[in-house]
Fold this protein.
Amino acid sequence: MVDQLIETEFDIGLSAGRNRLLDAGETPIVVFTDDDHLVTQRTRLPELVEKLNKHSDIDLLAALSNDEERPRLLRSNGRRLRIHRGVLKQRGSIRWCHYVGNCFVAYRDILQAIRWDESLKVEEHWDFFWRCKVAGVNVACDVSHSFKHEHIDPPGYKRHRPQFLKRGLDKHGLEKVIWR
């Protein structure tokens, strides 16, 4: 069943697609996942939304992606952005952090304030979460919830496109993103 079909021009990029979906809805809470994330018994989506509502110090609450994509922290020395595993604090199964995978529930107004940079068709994820951190968005991950991620790149797809990485680095005055 389809409630609404949003047709776009070809290859608008991930950021523009996410912004269009964000603009199309009206609910105060939204669920964001990639098209290859699957809801399973371990997702427990209603419970994840309930936890977001329960914790006033969380604006965006993620689940794990395949039990793998762990919470991360973002640190910069002004030239390099380091994205590494870690948490700010934890309570039960919830880990407060700066960076999570792309399967989360969040308040629409918070996402509307940050939005995804449409000049970044890819390499948009670290940029989005860096801007969340700078803006003071409270990000967390509940490690007791997960989505199944069945990622398959279509023929001809290039996951890493250096022109978008460079655009993101230039935007923030950075030289490099380090993933460790």
